[in-house]
Amino acid sequence: MWSIFIMPMVLEELTETANQPESFSFPKKKFGKKTVVERSCQPQWFKTWSWLHYNEAEDSVHCHLCLKALKFKHLTLALEVILHL
């Protein structure tokens, strides 16, 4: 799911290749109200979806190609307005 709260520094620190750590201890987040479950990014996702980019500062996963397109202003102005950039 595309996050509408991408921090500008995420784009500034974006590298040519996607960040896909294999031996990183991904933080767990709690989801749910009645039944609480803990979820975290899974390293095997990177093998299945090579375009995924993990941002350690935000503990978030994004489409690397989408971030690059946004950084280099290849996306429409409408998207920039939605993302507040």
Structure notes:
It is a single chain. 29% of the residues lie in helices and 16% in strands. With 85 residues, it is an alpha+beta fold. The chain has one domain (1-22, 43-85). The strands form two sheets. Strands 1-2 form a two-stranded antiparallel sheet. It has a two-stranded antiparallel sheet with strand order 3-4. Strand 1 and strand 2 form a beta hairpin. The radius of gyration is 14 Å and the shape is globular. The model has no long low-confidence stretch (mean pLDDT 80).
Walk me through the topology.
Layout: H1 8-12, E1 29-31, E2 37-39, H2 44-48, E3 52-55, E4 60-63, H3 64-71, H4 77-83
Antiparallel strand pairs: 1-2, 3-4
Gyration radius (Cα, Å) is 14 Å
- Neighbour order of strands in the largest sheet: 1-2
Mean of residue pLDDT values: 80
Biggest sheet features: 2 strands, antiparallel
Structural class: alpha+beta
Helix content: 25-40%
Q: How many domains make up the 3D coordinates? A: 1
